[in-house]
Design a protein that fits this description.
Blueprint lengths: L9 E6 L2 E7 H4 L9 E3 L6 E3 L1 E3 L11 H8 L4 H6 L3 H11 L2 H17 L2 E7 L6 H13 L6 E9 L10 H18 L5 E6 L6 H13 L3 E6 L7 H7 L4 E4 L8 H6 L3 E4 L1 H6 L8 H6 L4 E3 L13 H12 L3 H8 L1 H6 L17 E4 L6 H4 L6 E6 L2 E5 L7 E3 L2
Parallel strand pairs: 5-6, 6-7, 7-8, 8-9, 9-10, 10-11, 11-12
Antiparallel strand pairs: 1-2, 3-16, 4-13, 13-14, 14-15
Helix pairs in contact: 5-6, 7-8, 13-14
The structure holds N-(iminomethyl)-L-glutamic acid and fe (iii) ion.
Amino acid sequence: MSDLAIIENGAMVVEDGRIAAVGPASRVENLSLAKGARELNVQGRVVMPGFVDCHTHLLYGAPRLEDFSMRLAGKDYEQIARSGGGILSTMHRVRTMTLARLKAQAQRELRRMAECGTTTVEAKSGYALEARGELRCLRILKSLDGDPIGVCPTFLGAHAVPPECEGRPDAWIDHLIENVLPAVAAKKLAWFVDVYCDRNAFSLPQARRYLGAAQRFGFGLRIHAAQFEDLGAAALAVEMGARSADHLEHLNRASIPMLGRSQTTAVLLPGSVFFLGGLKYAPARALIEAGAAVALASDYNPGTSPVWNMQMILSLACTQMRMTSAEAVTAATVNGAHVLGIANRAGTLEAGKQADFLVLDASDYREICYYFGANLVALTVKSGKILRRAAEGESHGKTSG
Ligand code: NIG
Ligand code: FE
């Protein structure tokens, strides 16, 4: 994770949305370019892969400013959920919103993400919590793929127990297994299935039973694990060969070596700890030293992490979890791509991959971790297409033969 393979004085050729060549300028510049090829002179600046934000709750309708006020008045996340806020308040909003307004909300956020350097995002359902509504949200997510960045959909029907099943979480799990998972699978509406396993959410046996069913349908597995309490969800992720165990703020130390030996990526979400005013971040250093693959993501959502800028997440990873800047970059690019199963086409700048890259208003990549809360992205390029051009310090393209 600490080896970024930086090329000083590098150059890259992009053709048909893909990277055709990348390497030292002395070598790459000798390649003959197609007629009409456009040259971007980015001398003195960092060019790096676009961020792969592998954990977001993108589609949520509207912010939860009431929750925010309650928390500033001293209530914690779980108390707010019990007093009418939380996931279920977003559920009520999402159920009644028109498709057009829901879609517009997510579209606005995708553009903001792109401006801050994200070129691929994972997006979860989980705020409708009824069969038709969940399918509607997944269809919206599917329609947003490539508009303007890549969207990988995850089904998170097991996010909370809806009012229709209040006090009967097993009944909701049964309903998901019998009626919703088959439809999501048949219509190919999601790549992954996620479950929120924690106190005040789903228990370990419920998560195991549910993920077992999801696995039989062929979905990749994700788990919200140990955000507030370790119920054994990270161990379950490893046992079931899940793609990732996410959060891990309250991970039992004993589970660290096991994650280290496994193929399951630890997806760390420091934005949610920061926003909730918590002091306990996930044990990033211990995980990395145990050999775990660590990814970083925004956890973008209205309740615990309203942040679309991955650069802020990298800053938090460095200052609060003591990751190095290089580890943070790896975690937010290629490791995120591995979680999503797209590392063969995204996450690094290598010939044959999608031309998903950033030009930074910086001469050293560590500046994105150092200047916290800033946006140093001058240019976001997705599949060869320029999505953002900063007004200042703009690079000037010229035509070469
Ligand atoms: O990852 N904790 C569960 N899910 C989200 C929060 C969702 C919400 O509060 O709306 C998370 O932090
Ligand atoms: Fe989450």
